[in-house]
Amino acid sequence: MKIIGHTITKEEAYLFCERIFCLTQARPRLREILKLNKDPKHSPLAQEIAKQLVQGKLIIVDNNKNDVVVCGENRVKEFNNITLLPAEIPEIEVHIHNHRNRTDLGPISLIKLYHLLPKLKLEEFSLWHTGIENFVNLAELKIRVIG
Questions:
Q1: pLDDT tens digit string along 115-130?
Q2: What is the rounded distance in angstroms from the CA atom of residue 4 to the CA atom of residue 135?
């Protein structure tokens, strides 16, 4: 029996890169808002907040009450007149490691990653990008980021 490797479509690659960008933007803010002195991936609360943000949810953090709430659709209208200040867009450095031939590719841009992803057998590669501690297997990361 042949096991078919994990792959990714162009549409999934777009969503994957978009969510990596979103998470890269959110990570420093999560550290600041939740007063973390470690990588947010080690905080279950930070992980849950990041998951909600990636899904486009509005998150309300009340530092005085030490409370975090995912805003429901009925409350979103309360925030229509708020202008969000744009964040500084971080330069995301991406590196790919090929486990089969032990080669590295990088730094590459998210755009190059987008074009490269559909050509890869995900379980054979790991990815590192600015803001994370270690390389993560692409098949695992795909599941965590886009399902």
A1: 999 999 999 999 998 8
A2: 23
